[in-house]
């Protein structure tokens, strides 16, 4: 029963990933149909992410009152309805209206499922969970590219994705009783204690400190900010960069962006196995290094083929970072504060998704989309720097903690 519940959670994350990559690959065609300026995509993206921030901040109370299963079902239903609205939207105003439930539908379920898996399962489950998000994010642009190339219709692409979402909604509806049965069955043990779940800062003094006052928390939040800034910016503006700078056809650009999401997906699937041999900290560092290398390939004035390699490398590099940082939260800061800090991390992550892509769109509309690769390099470098500073701080605190323990032992 618990295995089947995990499958349902994976399906829910597919539904979260499907809409995330659609706007970026469809926007070059949507922009011409509506006669809208380039930065309008940033406004739509900001509206979606803003709704996600609001619902994620309210997720604690909502999840306690209605339960994770019910919220997952309602969120998927809202997303399906919003995507159907995109199909029928006669103007940009209606796109903005539909973007609101699209964002609200993602926040609570994302925060709830992430916290559930981080608390109850080991690191490989978190990586595979986000791998299934990548499955949705990969197939989204593939489906959209198919409709754009064959039918010249982005609207039918949204209609098809909406149909898939409604199908997942029906599955979630019929499996709602499963959540309650698993919860009530005391003989079933869902949770596995996270490895090294007692954090470096888990001591009597820190237990009385507010989460944001714990050393290292702000550095972790900066890492989440720039991670989501990179991931969402590449997804939203990658296609426009390839079309306007590398002069690729829209359908080809959409397929290349889908390979970026495929890199995230495949990377997270592989990461799930690597977590048995490597620590979260090592995987985070490796991923950031690979992503920085891929971003550098995009930045250098090379043939467009290197851009494809760069997109894939950025995707592969980003793959382990987010799930490993989430799963590392109890280890970094202790179980007592992990739930609160997890909420802060998700809120800051969505803030990066909300403001960084529109900021790039605003600057690009007044200059050129050619600044895209430079911004990606800066974002990845900032994420790497903050993460390494946090690692240094954690290492120092760990050494001091071990010294204190050894001195009291004698």
UniProtKB/TrEMBL annotation:
Family affiliation: Belongs to the major facilitator superfamily.
Keyword Transport: yes
InterPro entries linked: MFS, MFS_dom, MFS_trans_sf, MFS_Transporter
Protein name, as recorded: Fucose permease
Primary location class: membrane
Keyword presence, Electron transport: no
UniProt domain Major facilitator superfamily (MFS) profile: residue ranges: 5-399
């Amino acid at each position: 029963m618990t295995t089947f519940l995990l499958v349902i959670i994976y399906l829910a994350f597919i539904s979260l990933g499907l809409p995330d990559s659609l706007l970026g690959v469809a926007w070059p065609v949507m922009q011409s149909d509506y006669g809208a300026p380039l930065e309008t995509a940033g406004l739509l993206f900001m509206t979606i992410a803003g709704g996600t921030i609001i619902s994620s901040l309210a997720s604690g109370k909502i999840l306690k009152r209605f339960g994770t299963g019910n919220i997952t079902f309602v969120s998927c239903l809202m997303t399906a309805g919003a995507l159907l609205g995109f199909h029928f939207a006669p103007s940009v105003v209606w796109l903005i209206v539909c973007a609101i439930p699209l964002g609200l539908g993602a926040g609570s379920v994302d925060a709830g499922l992430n916290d559930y898996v981080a608390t109850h399962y080991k690191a490989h489950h978190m990586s595979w969970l986000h791998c299934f998000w990548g499955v949705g994010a990969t197939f989204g642009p593939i489906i959209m590219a198919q409709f754009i190339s064959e039918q010249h219709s982005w609207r039918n692409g949204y209609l098809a994705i909406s149909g898939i979402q409604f199908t997942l909604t029906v599955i979630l509806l019929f499996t709602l009783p499963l959540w309650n049965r698993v919860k009530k069955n005391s003989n079933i043990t869902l949770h596995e204690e996270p490895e090294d779940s007692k954090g470096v800062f888990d001591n009597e003094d820190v237990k009385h400190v507010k989460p944001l006052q714990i050393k290292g928390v702000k550095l972790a939040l900066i890492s989440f900010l720039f991670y989501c800034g990179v991931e969402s910016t590449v997804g939203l503006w990658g296609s426009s960069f390839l079309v306007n700078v590398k002069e690729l056809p829209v359908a080809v650009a959409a397929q290349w962006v889908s390979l970026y999401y495929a890199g995230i997906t495949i990377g997270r699937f592989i990461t799930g196995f690597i977590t048995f041999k490597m620590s979260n900290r090592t995987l985070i560092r490796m991923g950031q290094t690979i992503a920085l290398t891929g971003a550098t390939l995009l930045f250098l004035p090379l043939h467009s083929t290197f851009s494809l390699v760069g997109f894939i490398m950025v995707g592969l590099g980003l793959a382990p970072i987010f799930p490993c940082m989430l799963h590392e939260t109890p280890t970094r800061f202790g179980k007592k504060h992990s739930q609160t800090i997890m909420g802060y991390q998700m809120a800051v992550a969505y803030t990066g998704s909300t403001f960084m892509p529109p900021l790039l769109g605003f600057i690009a509309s007044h200059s050129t989309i050619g600044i895209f690769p430079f911004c990606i390099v800066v974002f990845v470098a900032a994420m790497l720097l903050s993460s390494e500073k946090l690692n240094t701080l954690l290492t120092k605190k760990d050494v001091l903690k071990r010294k204190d323990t050894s001195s009291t032992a004698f």
